Amino acid sequence: MAFDKVSDLAKRRGFIWGPSPNIYNGGVSGFYDWGINGKLLKNKVESVIRKGFSSYSFFEVESPTIMPKIVWEASGHYSNFFDFTVECKKCKSTYRADNLIKESLPNEKVILEMSSLEKQIKKIKCPNCKSPLENIKKYSLMMSTTIGSDKESFLRPETATTTYLLYPEYHRFFRTKLPFGVFQIGKAYRNEVSPRQHVFRTREFTQAEAQLFILKKDKSNISLSDLKTKLPLLSYDKKDPIDIEMEKALKNKMLKSKAYASILEIAYEIIANIGLDKKRIRIKQHHPDELAHYALDAWDIEYKTERFGWMEVCGIHDRQDYDLKRHSEYSKTKFPGEIPHILEIACGVERLTYCLLENSFREEKDRVWLQFPRGMGPIDVAVLPLIQKDGLPEKAKQVFKMLEKNFVCLYDESGSIGRRYARNDEIGTTITCTIDHMSLKDNSITLRDVYTTRQIRVKISDLKKVIDCIMDGEDFLKLGKEVHTRVK
Amino acid sequence: MAFDKVSDLAKRRGFIWGPSPNIYNGGVSGFYDWGINGKLLKNKVESVIRKGFSSYSFFEVESPTIMPKIVWEASGHYSNFFDFTVECKKCKSTYRADNLIKESLPNEKVILEMSSLEKQIKKIKCPNCKSPLENIKKYSLMMSTTIGSDKESFLRPETATTTYLLYPEYHRFFRTKLPFGVFQIGKAYRNEVSPRQHVFRTREFTQAEAQLFILKKDKSNISLSDLKTKLPLLSYDKKDPIDIEMEKALKNKMLKSKAYASILEIAYEIIANIGLDKKRIRIKQHHPDELAHYALDAWDIEYKTERFGWMEVCGIHDRQDYDLKRHSEYSKTKFPGEIPHILEIACGVERLTYCLLENSFREEKDRVWLQFPRGMGPIDVAVLPLIQKDGLPEKAKQVFKMLEKNFVCLYDESGSIGRRYARNDEIGTTITCTIDHMSLKDNSITLRDVYTTRQIRVKISDLKKVIDCIMDGEDFLKLGKEVHTRVK
To answer: Residue B422's pLDDT is what?
Structure first.
């Protein structure tokens, strides 16, 4: 099955290790390490998101990940961000009550209210020891800590709240002109009850969340993008998505404002730039019953994974003026001018990175490789001396030095050239660059393409330009003279 | 005073905001937000560090920031990472006992032991209310939290420990070949007692820590660098630093191993690449009395700040095999092969970023500007249409689109051109690029240099190449025809 193959390769080739800390009894569920290739890949995904937001004039900030209790009282997380759990009194297994009821009583409707859940849980036996279950508890999803000796605080369950709090600073910085956009890429924490969905549900993860602060009256007439893209929209009341141009979706009233349509388009463009297969993407509207009372509208960009089915990788929310009003009230701060609305894009970085990994997995007879979209592989160029003598390593190191300023490079001299090719195919290195005896004579090298395994000969002096072209997606075989070498 | 001017500019121009969350009663001490220009600058610093480590074949990983208690028992932090504090019973002020004794009894030696501190504290009155003081407490510097419903855990007080734990994974990944290097850039947390040194002592901060795993026997004969650099070494038994070539310092036995000298040289090169003034840097050895029992040697790279004097920005440690042995023991994991030693470089990212800011501050008559080392300014290119009409904004946006793929760009059309120049000078934008009416006719633009305020005229088709040259430090005036414009 694809998931097992991908997660096995991810472990073996240093993409995702864990659960973490693995040497201590196999680690704690919901925590992972991003290994050497995985971190390079995650950096690339973050870099595409950062460039995407920046190109629409969203500006990055970085806030603390810990905030005192009052902030979470204001945001609503302190009272509302919890799961219902049930613990078996006999065997001490803990379950999420709603999930257990859904699995055990598939025909009953699950309502997230204590009394309703308690009635249903009594019909169910503990899946582990078959004892009766009772006593549902509210289980906060925030992780708590203490600042100083006694200041009750929480690790942020999202970056967004910490970004909102700087509104007065933005207002000054942007010289009172709205709309403006900011974003934050950073850690968030959720104390999930027994998380079991690999990197899709973890207790510590990276969010990339952007906010557009915009006056209510401007939402209907301001757009940051051209609204010409066709997006696969799945309305809450439909069964299948339709591909529809944003302008038309607005006219049809599928979307509630021009500005919202615009950030939806931007979010989709960023996901597309990461290079996920568009056929596996849909954009699903939240059912009005699921919306928080303050949310005007919410759509999720979902990617169809092999193992978990459709998974949210990005959410787009119209939060109206809820957050700023609450923080103004709780902090007793009068914000300058009219309080704007917030339109938000919230991406899960690890989820996107995993989807990209799965999406790039290829297998054919006895060859396994990762075919990342051009430029997205963890390593751009692997520089390989054909053998470890005759001055080839020295020459290869010169080439490495020349390229490392502009590209993510790897120098690798150990093992036969065939094994080094196979290793680089497996981790999805965009291009390998081999230095052989001829290179010493005529300053040319062989470039090999992971997609096709075909090879071209290129002058070292042209190397930077040629690799730039490859990264930009130009046709590999047109960039140099094709060569045919036998690989032992 | 320079500190006030720099921190005022940092606040006003969106570098550093806080304490955070500022709207809630002025924030909590020890927490800051990195604003729009500050985050860009911090990203640049991180990028120099990342490139620096990578170019010596250290590989990046990313681990969770939360680890269960047993990890910190093994690392030693659980028992040993605390401060001695004293709380005034009357006014409830809390002090770090050793600091208070140093200030109040400047002639007495401070020994970090409970009995000795208790004797001394009785001689001191509370600085706030003049009541007598007593009862010193141990105050853990780790922030605690709970994973799941009951797993006692701590936020990491350093990235290093979380990096060490992956040793078995590295060993496989690098196919058992030592030495190898890894690094991690990420958040760490210390629950400081009333931190008061701006971003130099915070409760949440970013570390960039690299580790070289090397066999003990190889430390004397393996070097990653050429050991030719002269470094300003200040031995623990000397009063002043001497500039000495690494090879000579080894021969003199100032440094204990070739490998250690090498990572010291690499650390210094990275700090130099960030562009801090070398005259304000010294490398100070820890006194043997201050060394942890397992540490063979430790030197700190210090930068002389205006306000706080000499401050550590990077530490270089020979930790021997202490960490791996402890984690092997506590996790009951037999590590493969011989246990290597760890040589470590530990940089404080916010400290380095602040030093860079202070180091770049310039003032002359009524002009204030930030003169960052070339390429280190938060924004590479600000694209400015001369006025907001006649098609200049459209043309400027085309230029912006063209440049944003390769450079950090800002598009700014609001206010007079003179005010926009002044604003960009104040934040240290490397180059401004002005589009005027002539640009529409002959596709040329004006580039203006923040260092000198001088201007050259350049073809749009040459723009990317010219900016590349400027970022590489080439002579600005040689890259185009100088123009003289009056700025209103």
So the answer is: 94
The reported pTM is: 0.96
Residue ending a domain, among B301, B330, B357, is B357
Q: What is the ipTM for the molecules in this complex? A: 0.95
In a domain, A67, yes or no: yes
Whether residues B404 and A51 touch (CB distance < 8 A) is answered with: yes
CATH code of A455's domain: 3.40.50.800
Residues B230-282 have pLDDT tens digits of 999 999 999 999 999 999 999 999 999 999 999 999 999 999 999 999 999 99
To the nearest whole Å, the CA of B65 is away from the closest chain A CA by: 8
Task: Give chain A's end-to-end CA distance (angstroms, integer).
Answer: 31
Hey, CA dihedral for A420, A425, A428, A433, is it positive or negative?
positive
- Give me the pLDDT at residue A488, please: 43
How distant is the Cα of A242 from the closest Cα of chain B, in angstroms? 31
A chain contacts of residue B331, beta-carbon cutoff 8 Å:
21, 23-25
Domain around B456: 365-483
Residue A98 covered by a domain: yes
Please provide the average confidence, as pLDDT, over all residues in chain B: 95
Contact B36 A148 (CB under 8 A): no
One domain, residues B421 and B306: no
What DSSP element (H or E) covers A282? strand A281-285
Classify residue B14: in a domain, yes or no. no
pLDDT at B212: 98
A461 and A380 in a common domain: yes
Instruction: Tell me the two tokens of residue A193.
Output: 């009850």
From B21's Cα to the closest Cα of chain A, the distance in A is 7
Full DSSP string of B412-480: --SS-HHHHHHHHHHHT-SEEEEE-HHHHHH-EEEEEETTT--EEEEEGGGHHHHHHHHHTT--GGGGS
- Please check the confidence at residue B373 and state whether its pLDDT lies above 50: yes
Query: Cβ–Cβ of B148/A25 closer than 8 Å?
Result: no
Chain B residues with CB under 8 Å of A327 CB are 23
Interface touch B145/A149, C-beta < 8 Å: no
Q: How confident is the model at residue B488 (pLDDT cuts 50, 70, 90)?
A: very low
